[in-house]
Design goal:
Blueprint (H helix, E strand, L loop, with lengths): L1 E6 L5 E2 L4 E3 L5 E3 L7 E2 L2 E2 L1 E5 H10 L17
Antiparallel strand pairs: 1-2, 1-7, 3-4, 5-6
Length: 75
């Protein structure tokens, strides 16, 4: 099934159920990223919902570690 979703300023598609106006009237995703605005209003795209949700489930929300910790030996 295909639906029309908003495109956020970072280029990712966003479910309209997770987007709403902030106190200034700017459409924002629940994570705080604003919806991209084109010449005729908010940008949108057609999305295969099942595929998009499966892709989101595969991506981890936890940041990847950029360093390794070493154990120190007690002397």
């Amino acid at each position: 099934m295909r639906e029309t979703w908003y495109i956020l300023e970072d280029g990712t598609p966003a479910d309209p159920k997770e987007v709403g106006p902030d106190q200034h009237g700017v459409l924002r995703h629940k994570n705080g990223v604003a919806v991209a605005i084109g010449p005729h209003g908010p940008r949108s795209t057609g999305v295969d919902v099942a595929q998009q949700r499966a892709t989101r489930e595969m991506v981890s929300d936890e940041p990847k570690r950029t360093y390794k910790t070493r154990e120190s030996k007690v002397r």
